[in-house]
Amino acid sequence: MKSLLAAAALSLATVLPVAAQDATMTVPQLMDVATAERLIALGEARGEPLLILAALRLRATMGGAEPDGVAGMMEDEAALARARELAEGDEALTGLIDDVAAAGSRRMPICARNGFCY
Questions:
Q1: Cβ(67)–Cβ(59) under 8 Å?
Q2: Which UniProt keywords apply (predicted)?
Q3: DSSP per position, 51-108
């Protein structure tokens, strides 16, 4: 529990101040980044790969914000690798992680003429 609290405090202390300098991210988006980092830390502490996948899903649905390059933030590939380690021996979870990895690599926005992308 102490390591989880330390990881959460460290992620908040490093993510929020650096990300606050990025004018393109709103406060709710910054909170999503911090929540995703806490989910990853909790997933590692409890050995739960589904929490890591939830963090990746949260990042993917942040409404166009680009949190890449925020100091202290775990890269998606590293998070997927950690989830694979934790799911070792569980074929269902490993398959789910593979699906998440494949969906992320082929994700492309479709943009309309009015500038709306989905």
A1: yes
A2: Signal
A3: HHHHHHHHHHTSTT---TT-TTPPPHHHHHHHHHHHTTT-HHHHHHHHHHHHHHHS--
CA dist., res. 35 & res. 57, Å (int): 11
pLDDT for residue 15 is more than 60: no
Convert the pLDDT of each residue in 38-77 to its tens digit.
999 999 999 999 999 999 988 888 765 665 556 678 888 9
Contacts of 53 (CB under 8 A, 6+ apart): 83, 96, 97, 100
- Bridge partners for 111 per DSSP: 117
**What is the CB-side half-sphere exposure of residue 99 using CA atoms within 13 A?**
9
pLDDT for the residue 55: 93
Supply 50's token pair: 């589904």
Alpha-carbon gap, residue 61 to 18, rounded angstroms: 21
Structural domain spans, the chain: 2-105
